[in-house]
Amino acid sequence: MLGLVDEDFDAMELVEGALVLNKAVNPETQVSWSEAELARLVREAELALAHERDEQQRFESFLRLFYSEWGFEGDQNAYFDSANGFIDKVLERRKGIPVSLGALLLYFGRKLGFPIQGVTFPTQFLIKLDWYGEKPVYINPYNGEYVSQHTLHAWLIGHSGPLAKLKAEHLKTADNPTVIGRWLALLKSALLREERYTLALRCTDLALTFVPDDPYEIRDRGFIYQQLDCHQVALSDFQYFIEQCPDDPASELLKNQVTALSETSVTLH
């Protein structure tokens, strides 16, 4: 599992890196099936678009193929379902969230030769389409719709407050390690909501291989160990967070947890 740190994510497609991450979190991830399905869909797209000569029209046909014919869509009923962060599940269900759908769009789009890149906008993952000689345009991978600068600014204000200004740095191309790191955080959050603590613990352990002393990851690990009745380890993690972040409001709450755990018999696992 911890071999994730040895992967060169910038040397692979984002969706391939996501599969590596998914497998590290859940060994039951269907990596081989996913790779075969990706290859099958690439072949299908090549055949479907073979008659298109104009590149921009060809791209529009690709979007229709992805969202209408293949049926990929944002999961409006269960946005925070962890299945939306596992590529094999997204391929099976044809549902996902911006980052997982965006990773698929990037993969297919690049295989088909389109000038597309990923952007980690503050509110969500975006696809940037950069036609030669034209200003970049942006696509919301959740629904395949183009997003105007006005809409992006409105999203930013909703995220950061009324004084937020849209800057070039908000729309710069994202590197794969950055996206994978955020993907890992999304997976952990979803798994915690679902009380799948063993898989959530894998997420935290993976995150700590990149930043070993991150007090917030160690705090989260303490919470997970507490749910797994590993009270002594949870106690140690909570104490570490309190020492490192004494002014954080969570520290006061955790002091009560430390007192309670200190009075609880140690359960070994």
UniProtKB/TrEMBL annotation:
Annotated TM spans: none
Tree of life domain: Bacteria
Domain spans labelled Protein SirB1 N-terminal: 35-184
Pfam families: TPR_9, Transglut_core2
Family of this protein: Belongs to the UPF0162 family.
Name of this chain's protein: SirB1 family protein
Origin species: Vibrio olivae
